[in-house]
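User: Can you predict the 3D structure of Glycerophosphodiester phosphodiesterase family protein? Sequence below.
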Amino acid sequence: MPVSPHPRFPELHGHRGCRGLRPENTLPAFLHALALGVDVLEMDVVISADHQVVVSHEPWLNPAICLAPEGQIIENSPSPRFNLYQMPYTTIRRCDCGLRRHPAFPEQISEPAYKPLLSEVLAASEAFIRPAGHSSIRYAIEIKSSPADDNVFQPAPEEFLSLVLAEINKAQVAARTTVLCFDPRILRLVHQYQPDLATCLLLEADQPWDASIQELGFVPTTLGPDFTTVTAAAVQELRSRYPGLRLVPWTVNQPSDMINLIALGVDGITTDYPNHFLTLTTD
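Assistant: Sure. Here are the predicted structure tokens for Glycerophosphodiester phosphodiesterase family protein:
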């Protein structure tokens, strides 16, 4: 596939807000990403013991970045010690997940931060963009679902999705929201219960694009593959088979990789470093 000499710039998706710059999936990360100028806020959601939709990548406290409810360091263990699905949100909120800088992101600025509710993130984001004069922000909400975790770290898919959709619809942001998931069961339910809601099938590096779409049973709005699998041949085949399908790979942190993907004509780039992407657009 020939590369356009004047490729258009894709959407900028701030991964977990801006994980490379602020504590992931926290209000400081989302608000900083908005201040930088992302087009889409990407986040993950899990469920607490009292059925609250919590913004968190893992359905447990990650020892690398979180402290226990009383402020103590969490020791590494073969199985997670703090299962969020077994903790009420009042307890989860007491756990700091911002003071311990993520070891993989040395540029990250540490600050006190907790795991917010999805409703908080949506309300804070909507409130931020209005006085700032920003155009309406869009949301990419990943439901962290896995069949192996049913009724252990998460409710069954129907209940899980119902809780998330209730928050999206209550905030009146469904028209600007995409539901992302690696678990096809969740996306099939979205397609069944709220077909107008955009969906994104996420894929690991070892999952073939076309076969995964066929297995899903319908064509989602967006395909979200590991960026290392995005090649000119793969993009050409995807565009030929599914002309209207958007392509938004994850997670792209090196400017050289961003440049390559822009040349290939992807529709969006998900990154921990929105500032790196924005530097490219102003050069």
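The chain has one domain: 11-282. Residues 11-282 form a domain with the TIM Barrel fold (CATH 3.20.20.190).
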